[in-house]
Glycosyltransferase (Salmonella enterica subsp. enterica serovar Oslo), 148 residues
Amino acid sequence: REVVENIKLMPERNLFMKGVLSWVGGKTDVVKYARAERVAGDSKFNGWKLWNLALEGITSFSTFPLRIWTYIGLAVAGVAFLYGAWMIFDTLAFGNAVRGYPSLLVSILFLGGIQLIGIGVLGEYIGRIYIETKARPKYILKGKNSVK
C-alpha cells in the first residue's frame, strides 16, 4: 500500500511503470510460477513495441540521450581541430600545400561540431525543464520519527 501511495504523489500522466516501481522503492520479492503455453493466437508485442518501450524507459528517467550530442559535438570539433592543425603543420614543415577540399572539410566539420555542442546544451536545458515539469517528489520517506 505504501508504494501505491507514493506513486499517487506523482502528478505525471505517462508513467513508465517498470521505472517508477523501481524508483519508488519498497520491498520486492520474486514470485515463481509456471507459465502455460498460449492456446490460441499470437502475441501482438513485436520488436517495434519493444524498441518503443526501451525508448520510453531511457527518456523517462534520464537526460543522457540529450547529453550525448554535446559529447559528439566535442568529438567532431576536436577531430576537425586536430586535422586542421595537422594540415598547417604539414604545410609549414614539409611544404605540402593543401588546397581546396581538405580545408573545406575542416571548416565544415568544425562548424558542425560547434552546432552539435549548441544542440547538446539546448538539450540539457530542455531535459531539465522536462524533469521539473514532471514534479516528482524529491524524496520518498520510508517513515517518520517524532522527536520530543
Remarks:
- The first helix runs from residue 2 to 8.
- DSSP finds five helices and no strands in the chain.
- The chain has a mean pLDDT of 88.
